[in-house]
Amino acid sequence: MINIFVNDETSPLKAVILGAAKGVGRTPHFDEAYDPKSKEHITAGTYPKEADMVTEITAFETVLKKYGVKVYRPEIIVDYNQIFARDIGFAIEDKFIKPTILKDRKEEIKGIQYILDKINPQQIISVPEDARIEGGDVMPWKNHIFVGYSEQEDFDKYVVARTNKAGLDFLAKEFPSKIVKGFQLNKSDEIAKDNALHLDCCFQPIGQNQAIIYKEGFKFEEDYNYLKDYFGEENLIHISRDEMYEMNSNVFSISPKIVVVENNFTRLIAILEEKGFTVEKVPYSEISKMEGLLRCSTLPLEREK
Ligand SMILES: NC(=[NH2+])NCCC[C@H](N)C(=O)O
């Protein structure tokens, strides 16, 4: 049996699913891409190669294992992108939620079915069809669940809008003891620098009470202010539009002290080290071309209580 428990983004990590780059196959056609950064690289002829992405994700796996984390990997589905395990399911407290996600990605769940089979079925919750949620938009944080979402108007308009109001309401109903706080994000299917694809593309708590944030990722200033008031201005690390595009907020915490960061994020690395974090640096710039990074490739199953 696999234990499920996740109540925040940083408590010491015990078990995680890490996505797979093996079997990702050929470069997709422009029309097959479902985010603007992938489209950009398809057009430019710089879309990442499978072998390079395997190297990057293996470097990440090595770091996780160094800290004694149990790492599960998906079964490979040939010619299918299975890198961003984050979005296909997520754990909150002792529940594993199986959401409805983008149809282009609906096969991905099959790769982790053998893992889900080892979870007590009473701890697995399926989400109704009309409620749409991807794990990149969901962050349990102590008494809160922070959720990136789009109201119907945006949800219907953008392929990059992945969580809707029904998804947000579902989480509120399922976790009545939590403050489920929704944030609408700025979206663009064309311009990656104007697109906060998921909440973790513009915001990420670290340590005990700090966070990395890109203010302009939030559609409404009051939502940004909510987080500023919650964490305190002095505990926020602000990133620029270019840093958001490079995915600086998409770091991954192994514990409140240990953060995994892309090795080109020199400004962020310096700030984190100055604040006393142990920063594990991994190369992830090829995977980053598909508008996802370290947090996106992980699906934590268990963190310490
Ligand atoms: N949690 C995340 N931010 N995931 C990123 C997923 C990126 C992927 N290209 C998509 O559009 O679905």
TrEMBL record:
Enzyme class: hydrolase
Pfam families given in the database record: DDAH_eukar
Organism: Bernardetia litoralis (strain ATCC 23117 / DSM 6794 / NBRC 15988 / NCIMB 1366 / Fx l1 / Sio-4) (Flexibacter litoralis)
A Gene Ontology biological process term: L-arginine deiminase pathway
Annotated EC: 3.5.3.6
Keywords: Hydrolase
Gene3D superfamilies: L-arginine/glycine Amidinotransferase, Chain A
Record keyword S-adenosyl-L-methionine present: no
Molecular function terms from GO: arginine deiminase activity
Domain of life: Bacteria
Pathways per UniProt: Amino-acid degradation; L-arginine degradation via ADI pathway; carbamoyl phosphate from L-arginine: step 1/2
Reactions listed under catalytic activity: L-arginine + H2O = L-citrulline + NH4(+)
Protein name per UniProt: arginine deiminase
